[in-house]
Amino acid sequence: MPAEPLSRQEIEERLADLPGWSLKGDRITCTYRLHTHFAAVGLTVHVAQIQDELNHHSDLTLGYNTVTLSVNTHDAGGVVTGYDLNLAARVAAIAGGHGVR
Predict the structure, then answer these.
(1) How many other CB atoms are there within 10 angstroms of residue 21's CB atom?
(2) What confidence score (pLDDT) does residue 80 get?
(3) Contact residues for 81 (Cβ-Cβ < 8 A; gap 6+)
(4) What is the pLDDT of residue 1?
(5) Which long-range contacts (CB under 8 A, 24 or more apart) does 19-22 make?
(6) Exposed (0-12), middle (13-18) or buried (19+): which is 30, by Cβ within 10 Å?
(7) How far apart are alpha carbons 69 and 1 in whole angstroms?
(8) pLDDT band at 2 (very low <50, low <70, confident <90, very high)
(9) What pLDDT is stored for residue 54 in this prediction?
């Protein structure tokens, strides 16, 4: 069963509970800042593990001390769905444990 697109209002309501996440065009995004490059790598690995568990993957960019995620649901035509927000919530829940500033 394909994922259903969410309305802009639904997306914004759910993003209100996800600090740092925002809607940019047809994707939700977040950039996490960490204290060191090693901490950023650790967060990246943890995010990759979550993505594999959910079988839903974001564009994931590792910088020196930053990790940026950008996601929408390709199977739904490149729009934001509940899958994207569930991934964002899972990442937000573990980010603090990696020393996100």
Answers:
(1) 22
(2) 98
(3) 3, 4, 5, 6, 72, 73
(4) 61
(5) 19/92, 20/92, 21/88, 21/92
(6) buried
(7) 25
(8) confident
(9) 98
Three-state helix/strand/coil letters over the chain: CCCCECCHHHHHHHHCCCCCCEEECCEEEEEEECCCHHHHHHHHHHHHHHHHHHCCCCEEEECCCEEEEEECEHHHCCECEHHHHHHHHHHHHHHHHHCCC
Question: With bands split at pLDDT 50, 70 and 90, how would you rate the model's confidence at 97?
Answer: very high
Q: Is the pTM of this model over 0.85?
A: yes
Q: Write the pLDDT tens digit of every residue in 59-77.
A: 999 999 999 999 999 999 9
Quote the tokens at residue 6.
């969410």
Q: How many residues does the chain have?
A: 101
Give the pLDDT confidence score for residue 69 in this predicted structure.
98
Per-residue burial over 51-62, b = 16 or more CB atoms within 10 Å of its CB, e = otherwise: beeeebebebee
